[in-house]
Every structure is written in C-alpha cells, then in structure tokens.
TrEMBL record:
Protein name: RNA helicase
Species this chain originates from: Henneguya salminicola
Pfam families referenced in this protein's UniProt entry, alphabetically: DEAD (PF00270), KH_1 (PF00013)
Single annotated GO MF: ATP binding
PROSITE patterns tied to this protein: DEAD_ATP_HELICASE, HELICASE_ATP_BIND_1, KH_TYPE_1
Region annotated Disordered, chain positions: 1-55
InterPro entries xref list: DEAD/DEAH_box_helicase_dom, Helicase_ATP-bd, KH_dom, KH_dom_type_1, KH_dom_type_1_sf, P-loop_NTPase, RNA-helicase_DEAD-box_CS
Amino acid sequence: MVESDWDEEGDCHVTRPQSLNQPNFKQYNNDRHSPKKRQFTERTEYPRRDKISQDSDQITKTIDIDSSYVGRIIGKGGSRINELKFQTNTHISVIDRISENGLSSIVIKGEAKGIEEAVLRIKELTTEKQSYDRPQQFNRSSRNTNIKGTIDWNALHKNTEIRNQERFGNLVEIVKIFYHEPKHINNLTDEEVQKIREDKHKISVKDLSDQEQRNIPRPILSFEDIFEKYAEIMSSVTVAGFKEPSPIQCQAWPIIMSGYDLIGIAQTGTGKTLAFLLPALIHIDSQPTPRKERQGPTCLILSPTRELAQQIHQEVGKFNYKQIRSVCIYGGGSRREQINTVERGVEIVIATPGRLNDLISNNIISLTSVTYLVLDEADRMLDLGFEPEIRKVLLDIRPDRQTIMTSATWPPGVTRLIRSYMTYPMQINVGSLNLTACKNVTQKIEFIEYDDKLDRIKRFIDDMPNDCKVLIFVARKITADHLTSDLVLCNSCDGAIQCIHGNRFFNFIV
C-alpha cells in the first residue's frame, strides 16, 4: 500500500512501504483525519507475492475526492466514466458511500500507466471551474460574465447578518397590513368560525410561531369582506364570474393582508394562485417608496415549470390593477426579450429558478426591492432539484420580506425552507396533507378501443355546452400535434384549439 499526494506544482509523489505484504494503513488514516481536510488523496495496492500470476502487472489505486465532484466524474448516464475507462484501458468504479469528511472513493484497476493517466484526468475534473459566458449580444462591461458552476455555501452564509445590515439597513420599512376585519366577521364566535372552516372542505389553521401565540384572523365569507375598498379588484372579480372565495382564499386573504407569512397546503386547482396574487397587487401599490424609485421588482413569484409561470403571468394580466406590470422569466423563452422587459421596468417577476439565477448573476435583475415573495408549488420545485437555486435567490432578498409558500404535499425539504427563510408563519391545510384527488372533480373512466378514441373525443366535444372548455392529455408530442390537426379539420370547437408541448411556443386561449 502506498499513499501519494499532489504538491503545489501538480506532481504526484509516492512513498512505498518496505513490505508489499504489509500495507501502510496507519500513515494514510492519520493523514486523512488530520485537521486539514484533503480534497484529493490516493492509495495504491500491489498484488501479494504469493498471488503473483500472469496478471501481476495489474494494480489497484483508490482515490478519495470531494463527494460533490462524483456527478461530474460519472457524467450523464455514465458517459464520462465510460469514456475514461475506454481511453485509459482501466476499470473505474465509484464506491457508493460518503465518509464523515465528505469524501467519496474511486477505485481504479489496471496497469500502472493507464492508472496514472486516469488519475490525471480525474484530477482535472475535480479542480476545473466551469465558465458560462453570456452570448455576445448581451455582453456588457458592467456585468459579470463568469458564473461558477458550484455554489459555495460557506462563503454565502459567512457574516450573513453583517451583510444584510449593509445591504438592507437603509431601506424603507415594509407596509404589510391592509386588512381591517369587518364588524360581522369580528362578531363571529369561535364555534361559528370552526363550523365555517369545517364546511369549507375541512380547513385547519395553525400558528407556527414559537413565540407568544397570536390571534388567527377569522375566515371571510365574501369578496366584499376583504376587497370592498379596492374597486378595481372587485370589478375584475365580477367580470371573471367568481361567485364566492374558494376554501383556501377565504382563510388565506385575511392572514396575508394582516401581514403574516403563510404556508398554504392544498391540492392543485383549489384557487391558490389568486390566494397570493390579489394581496400581492395591493401590497405592491401600497408601499411607501414610489414605484419609479424602486431598484427592481416588488413581488417575486418562483414557479417550478415554465407552463405554470406562464399561467400565473396570464392571471396577472386579467387583473389590470393600477397598471402593475409583470414579466415571465423561464428557460427556453427568448432571453433577449425577457431582458428587455425587465430593463423597461416591472413590478412582478414570475420566474423559474434556473433562468432567474442566470439573470441575477449577470446583474440584469436586482432583488433588493422585493418585499413580497411567493414560492408556488414548493414541493414540485424541490422534486425537480431546485433547492440550491432557491436558497441562492433567497439570500439576495431582504430578510424582513413577506413570504408566501404553497404546496400540495409536505416533504422534509419544505420544512427546511420554512425554518430557514420564513418568519413565524401561519399554516393553512385544506383537506388532508396526503396527496389525494380533488373533491371538486368527478372522475369517470371509459375503456375504448384505440381506433375508436378519436370518434369518442369528437362526440365528447360536440356534446359540451358552449361555455365549457376541455383539456386533453396525451403521452407523446407527435400525438398532440396529430390530434390537434384532426380536431381542427373536423371544425371541433370552431377551430379554437391549442396544442401545447415542449417543442411549441404557444399562447393560452382563454
């Protein structure tokens, strides 16, 4: 057994033990657990003398690397590690275990020359820095053109309080309270309030503050109870045809407009978007700093997918309150167009985490003025692996903001975000915390032969009332294209049909 280290000039120095049958484990272990953490270490095993055969040139070398580089070495679908095996004529395997020091082991077997080449290539992969250069048409001297691929959390969290004080200490205090409880709501007894919550799909409300318990705002019964002073919003609600608030809206609006952080746990399709959007419009217009003097958007809404982001963006357009402007930022859209819209000035940014971090890192958008933050469908964002991007974004927003989080489930990652980035929130549950079907949807299943599907869809559409809409899901993009063409040729829905999938740029027909 030997141990080798990389010196400052990148050379590998090997110390061989006197006996090949007695590996020098002690020397390696002492170094490994020393106060100075290693990022790259090696150990080599030579064949025992009594085992020497025709494969005696084969040796085994074990490399310990920082576990954060394992994915880079393996590559997508194992492409990079397979390429290394082929080019160096060695067998390379990654041990699926992380040590207490955060190190992972890579075992290389083969001839000495091949192993040496494999080690050099792995070293390059664990020391290089990725550089993402902005397209030339967006190159501006005042902007950072290098974005590091790995987020250094220790550097970001260092001296956080001092950093926040320097960045946000001189900002104007946020106005969060816009709700005054109507008299008839204030007169409700606790039993009446509980009955209203039970009748509204079993709403439960909890105060998650570990401080002194606060009075939880009572649920409202109508739109007038909360938006009576906001004529433009009431007019838009009437035009949209809403009769009464949804279960989550009747409890969320009083809590949000009383200035509290909120966690809304409800299934998709329960009105969560308007639950955070309408208070956001009032919040934006009511801040003491004039809009023209703000350094960036006032409201940031993070969404897991571009489709959901576009849907929220359209909802903002339906409620044209005080000429508040919004932009939808997502990967796959026109980057130049998104940048131009941001630079013209917007009050609301609806974004997916990846593209938003891109624009922030290039100093295109500033989050200093954000006072109202929404994490929509936080559980889905965590499922898609956006937690590092979300945490990085939140570090750029003033800590005294108002934060709203919606989720359909309650995974551990959501709990971590709440503990780190929300201030004594209140939690609303509509129904069960377990993922269940929406009770407002009646599900019917029909077993149909493949060749009869198109005719059944046509009959279904023809039998629909004129004011109804239909959403059809298919398994493949090409199927969506073909089905759309067939329905258009049949003049179904008078041609008002839209095909939506990842290869199409589309606008919703509403």
